[in-house]
Automatic annotation (TrEMBL):
GO terms for biological process: regulation of DNA-templated transcription. Residues 4-40 form the Antitoxin FitA-like ribbon-helix-helix domain. InterPro entries: Arc_rbn_hlx_hlx (IPR013321), FitA-like_RHH (IPR053853), Ribbon_hlx_hlx (IPR010985). The lineage of its organism: Bacteria, Pseudomonadati, Spirochaetota, Spirochaetia, Spirochaetales. Pfam families: FitA-like_RHH (PF22513). Gene3D superfamilies: Met repressor-like (1.10.1220.10). It comes from Marispirochaeta aestuarii. Signal peptide: none annotated. This is Antitoxin FitA-like ribbon-helix-helix domain-containing protein.
Length: 81
């Protein structure tokens, strides 16, 4: 099994990790593995969600896009108020 060593971890972070591990009746190593798994799954879900949303956006076809007003004209108009 691979070994992961973390050096120079801030003391407050280590203490917090220790408290959370104790509350969950886990060793610090076990708690670290659980937290890493959760963080990586969260990041993967964010990435997949972004990809899905970008795909949805790119698949939407905008009709009559050539009739949209020029953004610069809209800004000038808004600033003129």
């Amino acid at each position: 099994m691979p070994l992961l060593q973390v050096r120079d971890i801030p003391e407050d972070l280590y203490e917090k990790l220790s408290r959370v591990a104790e509350q969950d009746n886990r060793s610090i190593a076990q708690e670290t593995i659980v937290l890493l798994k959760q963080a990586l799954a969260y990041k993967e879900s964010r990435i997949s969600r972004r990809k899905r949303i970008l795909h949805e956006i790119s698949s939407n076809k905008v009709e009559n896009a050539d009739t949209f007003p020029d953004p610069a004209d809209l800004l000038r108009e808004d600033r003129g108020r």
